[in-house]
């Protein structure tokens, strides 16, 4: 898979390296009560060292990620046997794993993995939880109370994963399970929903610019066609079939240069604002720290895509923040996220399988923390939410001031032409 570098959205190939993972806790085959304590160390022959480590509690279920070569955390897991994989990713593009089996003892209770207790979240709040019961007949259903006597959601079974739209404010939420013996248990979750503003139907606005990105540098290029091996692209607004709103936008990529890409971006706030918010006094952009990219997309030949990319960017005080999200269709059907400083994609282990000839609904949620770290919060595709909770530092970006979004289409080894229709692209900032 090729990489990119940023200018303002950019991507470089890396070499693999031998590496290893040493796990000191828990011991394989042991039985543990929840939460389970994981301690591991990664090592590599890569001269730049280990970038991050992660824990997969099941295939494609990345439960935890930390930066650096050491991992030390406790995970709340329901009872049962887990075939766990611990992974290290190095700065040369290599990785290695260690596998172990863990038996989690039976105990009644509700285990909430999202949102975190006492956290600040976007208005679209992902709730994910599992439940166990000593009742021999098992758990009947689970629900979410957003306030006393306000049951906002209920589902049958012992697991819950949904997104609720909540107004700004503080919520003393409760996740509850009801078992088939007449019993119940709960887990409280206190969250603060930040107030936000939304640019609606950004795909239909002005201000979009398209650039080819060609190997090997993948630098933005507005004039890469028609001379030599070329990359072609087009954007058609006011597209009505297929369309949800009656005013969709079609994006096209083609040409003769294999593995070339096309980036479209739009400057929303700050420099070159398309929304009438230039922020000439440099007081507006730093206020915002929580962002949601919400979009529907349709393709008839998504298999021709090497990848589809959806990015959020923020620049101020010489710092750059790029929350890059890449759905690798042609290279494993997996979501990657962008490491700003080390200019490389990091696999998440989350599957990405958009559906042909159908509307795919994508919601991306990210934050800039109080100490100016990038936090990847969650990805929701077609109603299934995966929590990421991975942090990265910003990069140096002198001279830029603003908030922008990107949409990108990558060509495959044949540079097979394909089109994607985008609709109801809403961007919320708070």
Structure characterization notes:
With about 425 residues, the protein is mainly beta. It has 3 domains: about 90 residues, Immunoglobulins (Immunoglobulin-like), CATH 2.60.40; about 70 residues, Immunoglobulin-like; about 230 residues, Jelly Rolls (Sandwich). The protein contains no helices and 33 strands. The strands form 6 sheets. Strands 18, 19, 22, 24, 25, 26, 27, 31 and 32 form a 9-stranded antiparallel sheet that branches. The protein starts with 18 loop residues before the first strand and ends with a strand.
> How many domains would you count in the coordinates?
3
Give the name of the CATH architecture of the largest domain: Sandwich
What characterizes the major β-sheet?
A: 9 strands, antiparallel
The average pLDDT is 88
Name the shape in a single word.
globular
- The CATH topology of the largest domain: Jelly Rolls
Stretches with pLDDT under 50, minimum 5 residues: 1-18
CATH class of the largest domain: Mainly Beta
Approximate strand percentage? over 45%
Please count the helical segments: 0
Distance between the termini: 34 Å
**What is the total tally of β strands?**
33
Helix content: under 10%
Any idea what the radius of gyration is? 22 Å
Which structural class do the helices and strands define? mainly beta
